[in-house]
Write a structure and sequence with these properties.
By secondary structure, the chain is mainly β. It is 0% helix and 67% strand. It has no helices and seven strands. It has a seven-stranded antiparallel beta sheet with strand order 1-7-6-5-4-3-2, with no helix packed on it. The radius of gyration is 11 Å and the shape is globular.
Length: 72
């Protein structure tokens, strides 16, 4: 199941290079560390450690330009 989230990104040499924080419901989470990342044809994925000590998988759908939280 994928849940839409609002993402603030760091844009370096390209736009939306990596997530820096995200809003889930009414709570904002700061990304403390990028644990892993991989790039697909239609989406980019980021496994991140947030400031609540939990790990999240964020997905950027490149076709829709929409961010989602991948959840089981």
């Amino acid at each position: 199941m994928q849940v839409p989230v609002t993402i603030q990104t760091y844009s370096g040499y390209k736009a939306d290079e990596r997530p820096s924080s995200f809003i889930l419901g009414e709570q904002t989470f700061r990304v403390m560390e990028i644990l892993d990342r991989w790039y697909g044809v239609d989406a980019n994925y980021f496994k991140v450690a947030a400031d609540d000590s939990r790990v999240y998988l964020l997905r950027h759908d490149l076709n829709a330009d929409q961010w989602e939280l991948d959840a089981e």
